Amino acid sequence: MVMDSMEKIKQQILDLWQRVPRTGVPDLIKFLQESDFFTAPCSTQYHLACPGGLARHSLNVYRLLVEKSLFYSGAHGASPMKTLLLDEEMIVAALGHDLCKVNFYKEGGEPCSEAQHKYLRSLIEKKQLVVKKDQMDVFLERFSIIGANQFGANQYRELKRDIPSSQASVLIDWLLNTPSSHMPDLPVVYSVDDKLPLGHGEKSISVLQDFIKLTEPEKLAIRWHMGATEPGTHFDYPTGYAFRAAMEKHPLVTLLFTADLEASQIMEKEGNGKN
């Protein structure tokens, strides 16, 4: 599967929002363009943990939701739904379900463990004569700080303590196995920096309602788009009752959370294409 460019994805998403005939949509579009929506990852490590992942995932969910709607409309022989999905509701639910992740991540990732840090430091000391000088200079510039003794003299290089764990693993592998080669490209990694911890679906609803009025099906679908992975949905009360009642009220609830699940677990897995 060939991936669409981020420029194409961005334009498709903006075109879809412009099809929603509601007051506040222009302000919502402006917010998306000024935020990190089109550059943010979709997760720290689980799916599309890469620049632009959030926008790509949102469009994937919309495409799946449209296909499900067509299937259950009776177009492919299935029994038609009693309540058909509206085009604008699919756009709002799919493109808005993960707005809780806007301005939510920061680059860096979880720092390496004490054991990783100690091992990486020992490898640098052992391999510094094998590593090419220009590559050692690159490494030191990026991953060390200049320290000094208590008298301020005899400056020395000290390995940074906040090197992300996933990057430390790549560096350790490089120094162990191919120290005479160029330092490998390191993965872009992220960690969570939640400035408004309202929850997941709840926060997405809050962000959307700052700009547009939501329908009841949209509110229910976005709130419960995590489906059975939502904490408490396996229990009878109170969360489980609300989740099941929401599914019974409108098919958009079930269709959105299954589209979200299929996008993250099938479309966006390594090797399956990330369209």
Description:
The chain is mainly α and 275 residues long. It has 2 domains: 6-106 and 195-267, no CATH class; 114-188, no CATH class. Helix content is 50%, strand content 5%. It has helices at residues 6-17, 25-34, 53-75, 87-96, 114-127, 133-143, 165-177, 201-209, 216-223, 239-249, 251-267, and strands at 105-107, 144-147, 156-159, 190-192. Strands 1-4 form a two-stranded antiparallel sheet. Strand 2 (144-147) and strand 3 (156-159) form a beta hairpin. Helix 9 runs parallel beside helix 11 (251-267). The longest helix has 23 residues, at 53-75. The protein is elongated, with a radius of gyration of 24 Å. It starts with 5 loop residues before the first helix and ends in an 8-residue tail after the last helix. Mean pLDDT is 87; it is low at 150-154 and 271-275.
Secondary-structure element string: HHHHEHHEEHEHHHH
The largest sheet is: 2 strands, antiparallel
Counted beta strands: 4
- Strand numbers in spatial order across the main sheet: 1-4
- C-alpha end-to-end distance: 7 Å
Summarize the helices and strands and which ones pair or pack.
Blueprint: H1 6-17, H2 25-34, H3 53-75, H4 87-96, E1 105-107, H5 114-127, H6 133-143, E2 144-147, E3 156-159, H7 165-177, E4 190-192, H8 201-209, H9 216-223, H10 239-249, H11 251-267
Antiparallel strand pairs: 1-4, 2-3
Helix pairs in contact: 3-4, 3-11, 4-9, 5-7, 9-11, 10-11
Fill in the keyword field for this structure.
275 residues, mainly alpha, 2 domains, two-stranded antiparallel ribbon, 11 helices, 50% helix, disordered C terminus
